[in-house]
Amino acid sequence: MSRFLIPAAIFLALAGVLYVGVVHSPNKSTMQSALLGKTVPAFTLPVLGSPGMTLANSQLAGRPWVLNVWGTWCVACREEHAALLDIAKQNALPLVGLNWKDEDDAALDWLKQLGNPYTVVAVDRDGRTAIDFGVYGAPETFFIDAQGRVQYRHVGAMTPEVWQREFLSRLPRGGLP
Amino acid sequence: MIPELGHFALILALILAAAQAFFGIFGAARGDARWQAVVRPAVAGQFVLVSTAIGALVHAFVTFDFSVLYVASNSNSALPTFYRVAALWGAHEGSLLLWAWILAAWTLAVAVASRNLPASFASRVMGVLGFVSFGFLLFTVATSNPFERIIPSPADGRDLNPVLQDPALAIHPPILYMGYVGFAVAFSFACAAMLEGKLDATWARWTRPWTTMAWAFLSVGIALGSWWAYYELGWGGYWFWDPVENASFMPWLVGTALIHSLAATEKRGVFKSWTLLLAILAFSLSLLGTFLVRSGVLTSVHSFAADPTRGLFILGFLIVVIGGALTLYAWRAPMLKSPAGFEGTAREAFLLYNNIFLVVAAGMVFVGTLAPLIADALSITPLSVGSPYFDALFPMLMLPLGALVAVGIHAAWKRGQLGNHRRRILVGFGVAALLGLAIVYGVYGAGKPLTPVGMVLGIWIILSSLIDPIDRLRRRLTLPRAIVGMTLAHIGLGVGIVAISTVESYSVERDAAIAPGESLALGRYAYRFDSIKEIEGPNYDGVRAEVTVLRDGVPVTVLHPERRNYWVQRSTLTEAGIASRWNMDMFVALSKDVGGGRWSVRAQLRPLIDWVWLSAALMALGGVLAVTDRRYRARVTAREPAVSQGSAAEAT
C-alpha cells in the first residue's frame, strides 16, 4: 500500500507549495532577487522620447534611486500607475522607468494619457537589461542604494503601503545627502 | 432581466450538478436503480441550464448591454459581432462559464454513449463528472459571477483586449478547453473503475476513444495558440515556453503518455495501475493549468487579473479532486496485478519507454514552470528559468523518444521479435540517414549540431510509420482506421521533428529601418518597401505597408504588414505580413516610424515553419480517425462480442 501512497504524498507537498504561493503574497512579491546586496548590472540604454540620448547606470551613482519595470502591454502596470504618480509627487527618490519589451510610440502615448511619474525612462526593447536584473514579469520595482547596490525587489503592482514600508524606510535618516 | 435569468440558470445548474454527483456516486454504491435513474436527467438538465446561461451572456454582448459589468469590461459598441460573441471567453468569468459549458457537453455525450456500459459504472462516471462540474459552477457562482451588474451603466464598454481580436485566438480557448475538459472524462472513468473496484482492462477500452478525442482537441488548441503568437505578436517565433503555454503543454505530454499506456492496458492488461495514475495526472495538470492561469501565482504575459480568493478556491478544489483521486488510488491500486510478462523489446516495453520519456518531459516542464514558486516557498535562492533551460533539456528527451518511436513501431506485443524486422529497421534508418543528411548539407548547409540528428530521426519516424500500412495493403489486408490514425499521428510527430530542427537552425532574420523605395537583403531574397498608407478598421486605425519580396531580383510575392491602434484600449498591435510557401514563410512585421519617412521593420525567412502546425494537425486528425474506428462504432450496436473480445485479449 505504502508504495501507492507516494503520488498522494507528492501532491500534498505540491499543494503546500502552491498554498504558500497564493497566501503568502508578501513573500511572493518580495521574490528574493539573486542580486540583493550586489551591484546593479551595468546598462546603457536609450532614453524614451529623447532620440540620441542614453542613460547608463553610472549616471545614477551617488544617491539612492528606484527602478520600475513596466510596459504598456502589462495590465498590472496600469493598476500601479496611480500609485506611482502619487509617489512621484513626494519627490523622495528618482524614479527611473525601464520600459520593457515595448514600442516607443505606445509608451509615449501611455505617459501622455496617464501622466508621467518617471524622472527618466530607459528603453529596454529586447529585454536584455531586464534579464540582467532577473525580472520575471512586469511590473517589478527595485531599490538601489547610493553605492549602486540592489537593496530590495518588489514583484507586482506598487502600492502606497509597500512604498512606505519597503522603499521610504530604506532611505538614510535625514533624507537624501 | 435576461442576465438575471442566466444567473438563475447557473444556480439551478449548480444544484443539478450536486444531485448528479450525489445520486451518481451513492446510487451506484447502494445499488439503488431509482437513485441512479436521477443521473441522466440531471445531466441533460444541467446542459440545458448552462447553455441558457451562455445564451444569456451572448445575448448581453450582442445587444450591447453595458449594464453587465463583464460585457462593459470586455466589449465596445464598435466591436464587430464575431468578436462580441468571442468576448464571452475574453476574460476570467466568461472563461469559467465556457469551461462549465464544455464540461456539461462532454458529460451529455458520456450520458448518451454510455447506455451500453454497466449501469452502476456509467452512474459513477457521471457522478464524478457531476462533482467536477459542481466545483466549477460553485467557483463561478461564488467568486466569479459573469452576470454582475454595474449601476449606473456606462455609456460604452472598455472593449475586448485587442490581442484577442483575432480569428485564431477567438477559437483557441474553446478548442483548448475541449481538450482540458475532455481529460475529465478519462479521469472520471478511472475514478469510477476504482470506486467500482473492477480494475480489469475493460475500463481502459471504454476510456480510450474519449481520451484520444480530448487529446486531439488539445493538440489543435495548442497549435492554434502557437500560430497566433507567430503572426500576431510580431516576434516571428512559434513557442516561447511562457508559463501559460507550458500549462497547456504539460497535460498534452501526459495525455500522450496516457493514450499509449491505455493501449497497452487494453490489449495486454499491463500497466493497469500506471494507467490509472496517468488518467488522474492528465486531468490534474489540466486543473493545475487553470489554476496557474487564473490565480496569478505566476506572472505571465497571458495572465488576467490576479485574485488570491480565486486562487485559494481553485487550490481547495484541486486538493479535494486530485487528493481524493490519489487517495482512492492508494487504496485500490494495490489490488492490481499485471499478469502478463513481456520482453524488453516487446511493444509493451516500448510503450513503457515512451511513457517514461513523456512523463519526465512533462516533469521537466513542470519544474521549469514552477521553479520560481518552489524556490520561493522553500526560501532558497530564487531562480526563474526561461527558454535556455527548456531549449537545452527538451530536445535531450525528445530525440531519444523519436528514436524509440522509429524502432518501437515494428515491435510486436509480448515478444518484440525485432529480429524479424531487422532489415526494415536498418533499411529505414539507412534511407532516412541518406535523405536527412542530403537535405541538411545539400539544401540548407551546416546548421546547429542537433539539426542533422533531428532531420534524420524525423524522416526515419515517417518511413517507419509507413512500412506497416504499406505492407498490409500489399498483402491485401484491411487497413482499419485505428491503424491509419496511428500512422498519421506518428507521421505528424516525424514532420514536427523535421520542421522544428529546420526552423530552429535555418531561420534568417534582419531588423532594419528603411524608407519606401529601399530594400533589405536577406540571402538570395530582398524585401522591397514599396509604400505605406493609412487605414481604418471598425474599432482601430493604423498604417499598412506594401512590401514586395524578390528572389534573385524577381518579384515572388507582396506582403501587407499592418500596425493598428485600437481606440478604446489605446494599444498598438502588429499584424505581420506573411506569405506561406510549401517550404518556407516570408515574414515581415512593421515596427515603428523612426522619422524621416523611415520605418523599422523585422524581416524573416522561416523554412518549414508551417510544418510545425501541420504536424499538430496530422496528430489530431490521426486521433480523430482512431476514434471513429469500426470497433468503437460497432460497440454501440453489439456490445457483447466487443466486451468478451476485450476480456479475451486480457486473458492471453
Shape assignment of chain A: globular
Radius of gyration of chain A: 19 Å
* H and E string of chain A: HHEEEHEHEHEEH
The tally of helices of chain B reads: 20
Structural class of chain B: alpha+beta
The CATH superfamily of the largest domain in chain A is Glutaredoxin
- End-to-end distance of chain B: 63 Å
> Largest sheet of chain A, described in full?
5 strands, mixed
Number of beta strands of chain A:
7
Based on Cα principal axes, name the global outline of chain B: flat
Query: Kindly state the mean pLDDT of chain A as a whole number?
Result: 81
Task: Using brief descriptors, characterize the structure shown.
heterodimer, A: 177 residues, alpha/beta, Glutaredoxin, five-stranded mixed beta sheet, two-stranded antiparallel sheet, 7 strands, 38% helix, 19% strand, globular, B: 652 residues, alpha+beta, Four Helix Bundle (Hemerythrin (Met), subunit A), Tick-borne Encephalitis virus Glycoprotein, domain 1, 3 domains, six-stranded antiparallel beta sheet, four-stranded antiparallel beta sheet, 20 helices, 10 strands, 64% helix, 12% strand, disordered C terminus
Task: Describe this protein's structure.
The complex is a heterodimer of chains A (177) and B (652). The relative contact order of chain A is 0.20. In chain A, the strands form 2 sheets. In chain A, strands 5-4-3-6-7 form a 5-stranded mixed β-sheet. In chain A, helix 3 (75-90) links the parallel strand 3 (65-70) and strand 4. Chain A is of the alpha/beta class and 177 residues long. Chain A has 2 domains: 1-25; 31-170, Glutaredoxin (3-Layer(aba) Sandwich). Chain A is 38% helix and 19% strand. Chain B folds into 3 domains: 1-160, Four Helix Bundle (Hemerythrin (Met), subunit A), CATH 1.20.120; 171-414, no CATH class; 508-609, Tick-borne Encephalitis virus Glycoprotein, domain 1. Chain B is 64% helix and 12% strand. With 652 residues, chain B is an alpha+beta fold. Chain B has helices at 2-30, 33-36, 39-62, 69-74, 81-86, 92-113, 119-143, 167-196, 202-232, 243-268, 272-295, 308-332, 347-377, 387-408, 422-444, 450-474, 481-506, 609-627, 630-637, 639-651; strands spanning 508-514, 519-522, 525-536, 540-551, 554-559, 562-566, 571-575, 577-580, 584-595, 598-607.
